[in-house]
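Handout, section 4.2: multi-component inputs.
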Amino acid sequence: MAAESSEKWILNVTAQTPTNIAVIKYWGKRDEDLILPINDSISVTLDPNHLCTTTSVAVSPAFTQDRMWLNGKEVSLSGGRYQNCLRELRSRASDFEDEKKGIKITKKNWEKLHVHVVSYNNFPTAAGLASSAAGLACLVFSLAKLMNVKEDHSKLSAIARQGSGSACRSLYGGFVKWIMGKEENGSDSIAVQLADEKHWDDLVIIIAVVSSRQKETSSTSGMRDSVETSPLIKHRAKEVVPKRIIEMEEVIRKRDFPAFARLTCADSNQFHAVCLDTLPPIFYMNDTSHRIISCVEKWNRHEGSPQVAYTFDAGPNAVLISHNRKAATLLLQRLLFYFPPKSDTDLNSYVIGDKTILKDAGIQEMKDVEALAPPPETKENPTQRHPGDVSYFICTRPGRGPVVLTDESQSLINPETGLPK
Amino acid sequence: MAAESSEKWILNVTAQTPTNIAVIKYWGKRDEDLILPINDSISVTLDPNHLCTTTSVAVSPAFTQDRMWLNGKEVSLSGGRYQNCLRELRSRASDFEDEKKGIKITKKNWEKLHVHVVSYNNFPTAAGLASSAAGLACLVFSLAKLMNVKEDHSKLSAIARQGSGSACRSLYGGFVKWIMGKEENGSDSIAVQLADEKHWDDLVIIIAVVSSRQKETSSTSGMRDSVETSPLIKHRAKEVVPKRIIEMEEVIRKRDFPAFARLTCADSNQFHAVCLDTLPPIFYMNDTSHRIISCVEKWNRHEGSPQVAYTFDAGPNAVLISHNRKAATLLLQRLLFYFPPKSDTDLNSYVIGDKTILKDAGIQEMKDVEALAPPPETKENPTQRHPGDVSYFICTRPGRGPVVLTDESQSLINPETGLPK
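Output:
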């Protein structure tokens, strides 16, 4: 049988998977091992052109153990969460045959064959931009393709969920709901797509990566502490979120931006309120996060109807969702007014992603940033500018789900050695 | 009748009233006019030697209108809240007679006579240290004495409550409960003393007055917004606080510091969580407040049992309640390590109030602050110092309730002119 021969074939698959940002938040597990949440959540998938994980996975009879490299560094695959994903995938693997290459792998062989995983984020891992969600989703998606797993995305989402809860929502583009499910084994705790990325395609997203010197509480331990100690979290999960989920689905269906913004902001704030209600309290937002919220709230109030929604995950970074391109342009002007780069920063590395928004805002060089006038809504109370409080901005939009990259040149694995290129 | 004669007599009374800090928080009214809260609250009265309002009130047939001076500046008494207090007090005034001075005021005269009020805080009004609580309590207390109002403190508390909710708790020393009451007219929404200031007299309180450039949301409008928009506030008021009130009363009775600290911190955090759950969200704590909490939490964890409780009102200032003098000394060393004064600050104006704590901490001059070693609990993660993030510290303790100052020289009113001295 080929898989046990001494042949040195290497079979590999490369995939790209997006990150996502929750607009109705996931915070709190009812089962720590299976990663089952205490409430449904809803997210927007972000355009993988600006934020994604690319993962190449390979299998070969020559590999002697499962190995993984993340952003150029070898990391251990021995963690329970990786192992859960690998076990679930291997148990669902199907026979594979490539007659030309003389490769034949039976369902049983998959249990014995080792894999190599090489993964890369096109954004800084440390920036707190849900890299683990995209990473685990990409690991599961690419391995499922490699192992010829015939389950649909929804079943795959239940596997990715066991690697990192919010990873399950990265298996679809557009708007995604993670249904908490009822089963003890977690089989019905899956992600489903509410609408694809074309459904509401005038939304524009700007992420403010906020400078922070504080070490943040990991979301795993933070949500465990919240479930154990917050007197408010149960009320949120049982009474508040179920209503918001119904409302958010309707709002997305109708593309009702003002209602979308109100719900998104309220749910982000409530998640952080629950963090504060935890013992010891958890602070993910800092003064810069607060200032960004104040800027958006002031502007939205001034306009009479929301132009921008804000949402913050387990860190100080703001994800700002604009009604449309025009609102995004006005938002970027405001952001650059309040949070200009330090004088020695290159504007080109300060606003990344979809740079056409910067162009629309009439900003080409640092002197244009310096020349920005205070927004009209700040007329009465003159405001300060805060250079250096934001590390950089990423301009992006809602995006598509995972894809296989068929172009061999995009593989991160050397097809001869099975090691990172 | 004397009160309507052309005689120029001036009758005056001077009183001193403490501030208080809630350990179970008041946040949210069920009646805006009568100032009736949605839950009970419990506070500690602070030593008036360090934080108090002194108010002199005078009455004279020569006065042509009600007038008030606060910290040297004339302010209007026309606000509804002042007017409510004045009306309530006048309606309860009793006949007064001073035969020597030839003054006789009947109950009916009080309705027509005008008052002058001169009030002074022995701490910066703008620092957000509950100056309105002490101020309104002192206004009501001193006018009640002047007008010979024969109601007990508890009835007076219901009048002070109509001036500023938390003012009702400043009518007693020690530990005070504001009972929310049930009556629509507010007659049973009163303060009662749980224990006097001698009951638990080893507690030491250090207040960190935190520098802030942000304009804060007034607590009046903030709590209105919370009641109208926070999905969590009702659950807090109905389900969480009633249990905490019972527990806190027991904890105070038993002088159980670890339980006191846990409850106090948890309730402060939950109040701020409700603020964050408000639309638009309200941020009273800033990065410095968060750092103070982290410092205390880390130390408490390191000691195995709480040494210090923290609580924050509607602003970034921390009120830190230490188990005893030794804990307060260790706390002050930590605070001065993390938050030293700017190099040009005089240490004597940086730590005010009971300076013996500073002496116990072995700190006499700036070089002693500079020489402070990092606290042992920070061993693993070296920490930054943040000069200038705290404006100053006030060392104090639980204190007594309002008193009349009989020494005429302490009056703030010129007995000849009826105007501020």
